Please model this.
Amino acid sequence: MSGRRKPNPLLRRGQRLVGRCGCVLHAAVAGCRRTLVGLLRHFWPNKPVVIIDGRRRQARRLRDGLGRAARGYANALGVELPSNLVVVAQRVVHEAGQLNGLFQAFQGEDGMQRHVILLALSVNGRQVSEDELLAALRAGLTRALEDVIGKAVRSVPIDLEVPRAKAGAPIAEFRPNGHTPPAEPERSAIPIQRIEDQRVS
Model:
């Protein structure tokens, strides 16, 4: 009957050493990966995919402008843009009528969310200005960033009504320091007969 072999202590030490080295190497690789991802995010932040339906020159200008506006808005809020964000500027946007824009969020089976912001280049036959496009874009971005910045806890509309001058209304004169100048004394007209009497004398 053959007896069992005694385990080699050198082999055990070698196995332990390899295991420890593997753990250290794994931690070092993970740390390098985190550092690399941080550097990439710092120097190359997430850029949304921007699709423009239009002429080449207009599309290039709008693509650059909308991309800069999206990144600037996210930076101002201190967050990053979602990695799966698509901005589409197309001729019209329909959703029970023509809209300036539409935000859509999709969630796949993998649990990853994808965001789409549709912007209308025209509404009811009227060409939309770039300022209106930017306003609609920021409204959509606010929805896309809700998971990071949270929902609004207070929303107060600000409506500043500027009174318009009525047609035919007298033009107000500028009064320095708000003071009204004193009225000048009325000059009485000199009768013609008196002027002629002075000439004769």
User: Anything to note?
Assistant: Residues 46-149 form one domain.
